Amino acid sequence: MQLFDWIVLIVTLLFIVIYGAWKTKGSKNVEDFILGGNETPWYTVGLSVMATQASAITFLSTPGQAYHDGMGFVQFYFGLPIAMVVICLTFIPIYHKYKVYTAYEYLEKRFDLKTRSLAAVLFLFQRGLGTGLTIYAPAIILSALLGWNLTYMNIIIGVLVIIYTFSGGTKAVNVTQKQQMFVIMSGMFITFFLILRFLPNDMTFSNAMHIAGANDKMDIVSFSTDPEEKYTFWSGITGGFFLALAYFGTDQSQVGRYLSGKSVRESQMGLIMNGLLKVPMQFFILLTGVMVFVFFQFNPVPLNFNPNNKVAIEKSQYKEEYRLLEKKLDSLSEDKKVINLLYIDQLNQDYDNPILRKELVALSTKEKDLRDHAKEIILKADSSSETNDKDYVFFHFILHYLPKGLIGLLLAVIISAAMSSTASGLNALASTTAIDIYKRNVKGEKSEKHYLNATKFFTLFWGIIAILFACIGTLFENLIQLVNIIGSIFYGTVLGIFLVGFYIKHVKAKSIFYSALISQITIFVIYYYAIYIFPSGEEKLGYLWLNFIGALLTIVLSSLLEWTLFRKSKKQMTT
Predict the structure, then answer these.
(1) Distance CA 568, CA 559 (A)
(2) pTM > 0.85: yes or no
């Protein structure tokens, strides 16, 4: 980091915080604070929805996911466009019809207070965890970059977001997210084209794709029916559809974005914009990760991308053993470079040499073995070390290979993404707590100003809780998967409640409440025995299926229970 990088980083972040606080200060009432006065145009709705989902985890973790596992993760998003259509046709008109502040307010109108409270509590729990992770992700970067305490970084990032979210509510979130999306996408496009420039002079984009394909990084679609395989066309189009339907249709962090739209049509157009752009955006981010992989076929690569592990090794008795592995990797990297250049030369002559392809695969296998051996040494040096380095791949590339100014810009991209997602999360948590829990249970008549102040207080409260979650966060397989796993555990049940409310009119409150409880407990059990207890890569069920199972269980159980209660009531009437 040079002085210019620091200037770019600090000026970008301060501009977003100050602009958001200044532009939107002084909400007059709860409607202004939560719904932004229903003044948001469709393009701002679309950008805000995209920015809410595109957290720092997306830009930190997704390229690393592609570097290690290829493009297959894009299948996760295949169900999203379909979900957008369903939400536009069903969810948005109903929410606007009932003039709700939060999605869960509808559930009391359709069922009862218990069902509304259950859905709200499930949301608060998982979104509180998720918001903490959106702070934790960029804090990892800055703590490693600056050598600062990770806890201090969590606090600094959390406080930056609290300032303008507390000040302006939904309007502040929407206003700042436009600037954040501009910074984010500008930084990613610049980085992508710089990677292409950094590749050997005679190498075309087509050549790069061939090298990625030879290393199995371009397997985009899998039609496998194996439930243990995490990302397939089928899990994306079903589990991904249900996850997207739940997230965009029932998660207040997203519902709040389009409830602020000027009209039903403006909200719908914003979501359709998200449906059209989200898959290409994720494809592009994954492709950037693949291009980073191609770049490292011609440049030195560390045994482990996490810089903290290198520090731990240097302080241990295993440093010589680790250095020996590094020398082997250096030698292997030179071999890879030579073979890749030969392979490119053959490709330029329109010949895809199968022998060189096999040699590339063999070298990649040897590199993987060296990395696995390095992980064993790291754990011997410090058993508490996190050897999974997917979240550090893109970070390593940014710090070591980007020119002055762009390092600051890319760090601003990652932190801006964190701020946008965290702000939406805090705004949604505060809105849900104030409207669905506090206002619904407080006794006596209270003024609009009282509820406005309560919503602001809950913004501050959840900001502190999110910072605490971030401080105790640990890396899972990688952060983007952890966020989606947390969502998948809870979203299915909540979505099932809403789907029954929208489409199965004969199911009453008692049936849906107890069915949702049973469904959620069942999902906990399935997750524990089919996913949690197995080491990474050995799970018996892809976590995306939890969304489908949770929703289906809630729908089927509530229908059966309602039918049983109806039969029982009919029998009693007969006797």
Answers:
(1) 14
(2) no
